Amino acid sequence: MNKRAGIPIGALIVFSVVFLFANAIGFLFQFVVIPLGSWDAGSGLLVGGDWVYFHRLALNLVDNINRSGWAAWGLRPSGQAVSGIAAFLYKITGVSKPWVMLPLNSFLYGLIAVFQYLIFRKISGSAVVASVCVSMLFVFPSFILTYAQLSKDIFSIFGFIVILYVFVCCCYPSSGNYKGVTYIILLLTISNLSIWVVRPYALKFALVSESVCFALLVFFKFFCCKHFKLINGFLSIVITSAFIFAPSSSLEKHLDGAEAALEIKDAVGGWVGTPALGKVDRLFEDVARTRRVLIYGYPDAGSNIDSDVNFNKAGDVVKYVPRALQIGLFAPFPEAWFRKGRSPGASAMIVASAAEVSMLYVMYLGILLWFLVWLFSVTLGGFKGVVSVVSIPSAVIIFLFSISWLLIYCLISPNVGTIYRLRLPVMLVFLGLGATCWGGLYKYLMCFDRLSIKVISSNLLHPSDHS
Predict the structure, then answer these.
(1) Which residues, including other chains, have CB under 8 Å from residue 419's CB and lie 6 or more apart?
(2) Most buried pick, 205, 225, 407, 428, via CB within 10 A?
(3) What is the reported pTM?
């Protein structure tokens, strides 16, 4: 792999292309697409999104800065860091329009693409397959909203994908030297900071996922992959824990909407404790409490699902896990693909989400078929060179990290729209794994084809040898 200053040339190309693409699409979206439709909320923003509220908060903060100076600026006005960042850029540029955020959002989007490329370059062993994985960032409409509007998602997706990359690096010996550890600490600090700034509570979910993956790393280390480096996983848990216990609670209490519910500490409804679980039972209770708050706090939400399901004991949470995974992986379900939204913008997003979920189903099929073919053909060497011994554990690690992250959201939230939006970083993983698996299947079939042709030709040319 060609490198310049230690950075793969392919990654530099990916960043440049995606950065320019996001800027171009973002400006086109705000200045051409939105004004042409009935979904225009003004200033290049779509009707009905949180970004309208974020923009209004940013404008109010700029007014306060104009009156009282920079002492009036705060990172999280009313708990919204996106508004604080936007207000900062509005003030220093003198332009109080959302497009001012486009270069920053595009920069983060470019970095997301780079780490997506690096992850699947390692897993697939192919720059072509990795490039196909990155191409998903160009075609999915939901991702446009993360950088073309004022959104928290661009920050949290960036943090998520970088943490994933750190765990993938655990599977390669080079990450254990001094320079590698320093690099990992820097990446973890930046990624956790990116999540902490916009969604401090999400780090608690990340910690659960990191713990699951670290346990898996320990298993691989002692049973099959002695070269694995546990330092990355350990540092990830330590740094995430440090951010979780950082003094941000006074800021989080201002969070509105669904996120405010995640910070409510008062119990809603009864809870039957399970003494045998000890302190773990409190975690289940927190899940149940949060879900109740979201159900009863937003009874009229248009995309609520299973809003009649509440948890009264730890066993209820465990029993709901299969259903939560079904919703997290497959929602919105086909019966919801053709319903009419409450607004033109909502109707457009329903159509877009239907197309995206259809593609996701195709990727799931690729993962399933790859697994079945690999399971029955591994002894024949059918996948040799397609997925190496090292890349299989790393693929399993990012898969479990994503599933555990997604599962927590699906247990606490009864709203498909919220789950869909918070599922975006997990979608990147499944799209990447799906593309990798389809690529592996294609190579397998090509090798199988060539082998069949050789056998048939041999039988025709030398029939006596096979009599």
Answers:
(1) 327, 328, 331, 409, 410, 413
(2) 428
(3) 0.86
